[in-house]
Amino acid sequence: MSQTVDAPEISKGYGESVFKGAIADKYLKAVGMSAADLDDYSWINDSAKADKVAKALLKWGLDAGASSFCHWFQPMAATFRHGQTGQVQLSTLEYNSDGTPTFELKGKHILFGETDGSSYPNGGMRATHTAGGYLCIDPSSPPFMRDDCIFIPACFVSYDGHALDEKTPLHRAHQAMSKETARLFKHCGFEVKGAVNNIGLEQELFFIPREAYQRRMDLQFTGRTVLGKMPARGQELCDHYMSPINIEAEVYACMKEIQEQCYKLGIPLKTRHREVAPNQYEFAPLFGSVITQTDQNLMVMQIAEEVARKHDLACLLQEKPFAGVNGSGKHNNWSISTLCGAQLLNPGDLTAKSGNPNLFPIVMAALVAGVDEYGDLMRLAISSPGNDFRLGAMEAPPSVISTYLGTQMTAYLKDFSEGNVYEYKPATSPINLGVDIMPIVHAPAEDRNRTSPFPYGGHRFEFRAVGSSQNVSLVNTVLNALTAKKFSEISARIEAGEDAVAVAQDMLKKHFKVVFNGNGYDPAWPAKADELGITHIDSGVEAIDKFVAEKNVKMFESLGIFDAMECAARRSILLDLYVGTIEMEVGCMIDMINQHAIPSAKAAGIDTAGMAAGVSKLEAALKEMHAASDEYEAAKLARVLRLDTMVEVRKVVDDVEAICPADKWTIATYKELLFVDTGKFK
Asked: Is 579 helix (H, G, I), strand (E, B) or coil?
C-alpha cells in the first residue's frame, strides 16, 4: 500500500520556477522536444536542439514576465559577495525590421558567454591584458527563474582553459570518481556505467534584529562581532536547541517565506528548527546530486539574506558571529550510488545489486585510505576564515582529520583486514522503554559521534567540520578526488595481477590508524593523533598551504582536476581571502573603538587609556602584516593578529562595556542582538 497522499492545494507551485520535469516538458513539446531530452546532455552539441531549448526557455520566461537571462557562475573566494555568484543580466528584447519590439533567445546565447576574468580572484591566472573569461552552460543543473530573469548555471574558465570558478573542478572530480567507480567495479564483477555523488547540506545560520544589526559596523562589514560582552544569559541550559519556534514572532514568518521561495525553485527544505545558540536556526533539504545541491545551497543562502530583510531581521551566515556561544556549520552529508542505483555505502544494497559481498569492504578500504592520505586536503577544504573559532571548540570537530565507523563496522573491517572474509551484516539493537504500550526502538549499528569530523552513519558519511558560509564545491571536489584516486590505485594493482580483496586488506592495515571512535573533544586526542601520524593542522593558514604539497598536486593532476598552476592560484586566493578578512575585521575594531567605545567611556567618566593603547597595538600589527614578504607570511601574521592581539584588545573593551551605563554605550550589545524572541534589552 502506498503511504503517499497527494494534496494539490498545498503542493501547488512546487518547482514552477525551475525549468525541469513537467514545467519544462510543456514548453519543450511546443518545439518538438520533451523534458527527457534535457537528461541527455548531448543536446548541447546539436545547434538545432539548442535553439529549440532556448526558444522554450524564452516562452517559459515571458509567460511568467521574465524578459532577461544570465549565466550564473561561482567565482572563487566569494564569501563576502551577495549570493556568492556572478552574473550579467541581459535583456532578450530585440527589434523587428519595422522597429517594433520582439524578444529573442538563441541556442548560442544560452550555451556560451564571455566576460572579464581578471576582476575576480584568480591567483594570477588572469591579468588586465589577458582578461578573457568564458562561460559555458552546465546542462546537469537546471535553469531557474527569479523575478524577471532566467538564470542559467554555468562554468567559468580562462582563455587557457584554467578553472576560474568553484563549479568546474567539482565537475572534473565528480567525473573522475564516476569513471574510476566503473573501472573498479568491473574488476569486481559488477558492470556499471558510472556513479553519482549525492549530498545533503544542513545549513545553520543566525537571525538577529535588523535595527541592532544596523548599529554594528563589524556585523555589516564582516559578519562577525569583534567586540561585545556576553550577557547574563547565553546557551548555558541549551534551552534554544529544538525548542518551539515562536509562531507569533518574526523568525517563524521569515523561515516560512524562505521555504516558500525555495519551494518554487524546486528546493525542498525538509527541516527547520532552532539550533543551540540563541537566535541560531537550521534548514536542511532532501538529498540530491552534488552539482545541483551545491547550486541550490548558494540560492538558499541568498534567499535567506534577502527574505530576512523583509521581516526586519538580518541573516548571519558567518561561522562565528558571536563569541561565547556556538557558531554555525554546514554538515555535508555525503554518499555515492551507481547510475543503476546501487548505494556504495549501504552494505546490504550494494551486495544485493552487485552479487559481491566483498565489494563493500573494498569501497570502505579505499575511503579509509583516502581520509588518511589526503586528510590535509580535507582540512584545507574547510579552512574558511570563520572556522578559526569553531574547530575543536566543543561545537565542531577538532582539526584532527579522522573518521568514525562505529564498533560493528570497525570490528568487521579489522576481521576483514586479518583475512576473515565474510559479508558485513550490521545488526540493530532493540531498546525497550520499559512501558508496555510503547514500541521497541531499534538503534542502528552506529551511534552518533558528533565529535568526529567525518563519521559514518545511516549509509552515508557526514563531513561535520564544513563552515556555514562556505560554497561546498571544494569540499566535495576533495572528497570525490580522494575517492577516485584510491579506486584508481586498487584498479591499477588488480590490473597488475593482484587480488582485489588482498589489495583492500593491505590498504586497511596501512591506514586503519585514521579510524577513531572515541571522543574527539578529549584534550588528549590531538597529541595521540600526532603520535599516530594522523593529519592534525590547527592553523587554517598552514592547511591552505597544503594545496601546493607535491603529493596533492600530483594527485589532482593525475585525475585531471587541477594542474600545478591552478593549485598555486587557489592557494594564493585562499590566503588573500584570509588576510583580507582579518584586515576588514581589524579595521572595524579600530573604528568601533575610536568612534564608539572611547567616546562612550569618556561620557561615562571611565578611563580610556587601555583602549587607546589597544588601538595602537592593532595598528602596529596591521602595519607589520602589510609589510610581510609574501602572502603566506602575511596570512600567518594575520592569524596571530586575529587570535591573539584582537582577543587581548577585545577583553579590554568588553570590560569597559561591562561598567558603562547602558544609555551611554552606542554599540548594539549582545543583549540586543541575541534574544530576538524574548524582547529588547539595552
From this structure: helix
| Residues contacting residue 426 through CB under 8 Å, at least 6 positions apart | 347, 408, 409, 444, 445, 446
Q: What is the pLDDT of residues 656-667, one digit of tens each?
A: 999 999 999 999
| CA 377 to mean position of chain CA atoms | 15
Distance between CA atoms of residues 272 and 262, nearest Å: 13
Decide if 123 contacts 571 (C-beta within 8 A): yes
Length of the chain (residues): 682
Residues 225 and 223: their CA atoms lie apart, in Å, by 7
Q: Which residues on adjacent β-strands are paired with residue 456?
A: 461
- pTM equals 0.97
Measured in Å, how far apart are the chain's first and last C-alpha atoms? 58
Q: Under a CB-based contact definition with an 8 Å cutoff, are residues 328 and 396 in contact?
A: no
Evaluate whether 264 touches 147 at the Cβ level (below 8 Å): no
Q: Could you tell me which residues come within 8 angstroms of residue 390 by beta carbon, excluding any fewer than 6 positions away?
A: 319, 320, 327, 329, 396, 465, 467
> Which residues are within 8 A (CB) of 122 and not within 5 positions of it... i.e. 6 or more apart?
76, 158, 164, 569, 573
Question: pLDDT for 147-178, tens place per residue?
Answer: 999 999 999 999 999 999 999 999 999 999 99
CB 571 within 8 A of CB 565: no
Task: Give every CB contact of residue 219 below 8 A, 6+ residues apart in sequence.
Answer: 208, 213, 225, 314, 316, 321
Q: Are 582 and 606 in contact (CB under 8 A)?
A: no
Q: Rounded CA gap, 27 and 34, in Å?
A: 8
Place of cell 587570535: 643
Q: Is the dihedral of CA 206, 208, 214, 219 positive or negative?
A: negative
* Confidence band of 545 (pLDDT split at 50, 70, 90): very high
Unique residue bearing C-alpha cell 569486481: 188
In DSSP terms, which residues pair with 206 in a beta bridge?
280, 316
CB distance 397 to 327 below 8 Å: no
Amino acid at 225: T
What residues have CB less than 8 Å from 55, skipping those under 6 apart? 31, 105
- How many CB atoms are closer than 10 A to CB 235? 18
Cell (9 digits) for 281: 536556526
What are the phi and psi torsion angles at 36 (to 5°)? -60, -30
Question: What crossing angle do the helices spanning 290-310 and 167-187 adopt, rounded to 10°?
Answer: 150
**From the CB of residue 342, how many other CB atoms can be counted at a distance below 10 Å?**
20
Reported as type and span, the H/E element at residue 372 is helix 359-373
Q: Using CA atoms, how far apart are residues 536 and 399, in angstroms rounded to an integer?
A: 6
Q: Indicate if the pLDDT at residue 682 is higher than 60.
A: no
Question: Shortest CA distance to 676 belongs to which of 331, 205, 79?
Answer: 205
Contact (CB, 8 A) for 304 and 205: yes
DSSP class of residue 458 equals: S
Q: What cell numbers appear for 632 in the block? A: 603566506
Cα(587)–Cα(605) distance, rounded to whole angstroms? 26
95: CB partners within 8 A, 6+ apart: 101, 102
Question: Could you give phi then psi for residue 46, rounded to 5 degrees?
Answer: -115, 105
Measured in whole angstroms, the distance separating CA 21 from the mean position of its chain's CA atoms is 27
Q: What is the pLDDT of residue 393?
A: 65
- Rounded to whole angstroms, how far apart are CA atoms 51 and 44? 10
CB of 508 within 8 A of CB of 417? yes
How many whole angstroms separate alpha carbon 203 and alpha carbon 258? 13
pLDDT of residue 680: 59
CB 335 within 8 A of CB 328: no
Tell me if 153 sits within 8 A of 138, measured CB to CB: yes
For residue 272, give the H/E element and its range: strand 269-274
All three cell numbers of 457: 552513519
Cβ neighbours of 253 (radius 10 Å):
16
Q: Where are the beta strands (DSSP E) in 127-245?
A: 132-137, 144-146, 149-158, 195-209
Mean pLDDT of the chain: 95
Q: Are 424 and 350 in contact (CB under 8 A)?
A: no
